[in-house]
Amino acid sequence: MWDLIEREAIYLYYYLDIQVRQLFWFYLLGTLLGSLLSVFGKDRLKRLLTAQVGVSMGFLGLIIAALLGFASPLCMYGTLPLVAALYHQGVRQDYLACFMVASVLLNPQLIAYSLALGPTIFTLRLLTCLIMALAAGLIIRYAFKNQPFFNFVSFGPGHNRDTDPNILWRYLKNVGRNLKATLPYFLGGMVLSALFSIHIPQDAIASVLGKGNPMSVLYAATLGVPLYLCGGGTIPILVMWLASGMSPGAAVAFMLSGPATKINNLAALKAILGLKHFAYYLGFIIVTALILGLSTHLMFMMA
User: Fold this and answer.
1) In angstroms, rounded to a whole number, what is the distance separating the alpha carbons of residues 297 and 178?
2) Is residue 10, in this structure, part of any structural domain at all?
């Protein structure tokens, strides 16, 4: 009994040590960058979005909104007051939809974390998230051209916690809040990944999520829903799965379905969408994640 526990502890330490060496600097970079933009970039972000009031820039406007969404360091509960204020100032709702979906899928911290996935998967993550955000904006532009999609009537202003008069201390407080919010999930993801490595053979992961399984994209999209609690926490799991043979298409489906159906995000989104439009949102996420995942899967199968 004790021999079994000791062997388990040795293996767990071994895999955790490897992951810490591989991922720690990506996590640290993402945390410091996210706090930097959160403390010093929020007002600039709002000004850039407000500049689009009454301006129709066509498809270019959607691209700008998506890129600003990726640059936003705010969580969903920080994003909604900003979007509500912009909505009441007259910013087009197709731009806001594009911005919100982009912000749900990626942020500066997660972009930095995702560098650990390697250049191919990192690029796929950026491209497919951009495509999903643009698709959301286009659907709102044409399907809800003459009717409101959002409901911000009862949404109050958000609380800004970055108010310390000392700039350095303001930044360090934000870093501390970021660490408090993400570090437990990041460590939990590493422990879960290590346990997967110990107890699940690599060929089993490859058989379920690999290129040879036509259902791998569906399985990955489904797994993204319960396993995605925090972006940083999924990076160790994805690194291990990719090393074990996970297909790029399955990775894409997981990376799209997970953050878009994160339970905290869903609770916030339902409050401003209502039941009917919330159902539209879920259907859009599932269908788009599967389409982009399958397209990536077929592209790599034919390569």
Assistant:
1) 34
2) no
Could you report the per-residue pLDDT of 172-228, keeping only the tens digit for each? 888 888 788 677 777 777 777 777 767 676 677 778 888 888 789 999 888 887 767
Angle at which helix 76-88 crosses helix 263-302, to 10 degrees, equals 100
Residue whose token pair is 């959607």 = 62
Residue-wise pLDDT for 56-100, tens only, equals: 677 888 999 999 899 887 766 667 777 777 777 778 889 989 998
| Res 19: pLDDT | 72
Between vectors from CA 190 to CA 185 and to CA 194, what angle results, nearest 5°? Answer: 145
Assigned domain for 3 exists:
no
Question: Residue 287: what pLDDT?
Answer: 94
Q: Specify whether the CB–CB gap between 285 and 130 falls below 8 A.
A: no
Give the pLDDT confidence score for residue 51 in this predicted structure.
67
User: Given a cut of 80, is residue 147 above it in pLDDT?
Assistant: yes
Q: Residue 102 pLDDT > 90, yes or no?
A: yes
Do the domain assignments include residue 37?
Answer: yes
In a domain, 2, yes or no: no
The domain of 148 spans 15-302
Q: What's phi and psi for 227, nearest 5 deg?
A: -85, -15
Structure tokens at 215: 């259902």
* The 3-state secondary structure of 25-50, one letter per residue: HHHHHHHHHHHHHHHHCHHHHHHHHH
Task: Identify whether the C-beta of residue 297 lies closer than 8 Å to the C-beta of residue 217.
Answer: yes
**How many domains is the chain partitioned into structurally?**
1
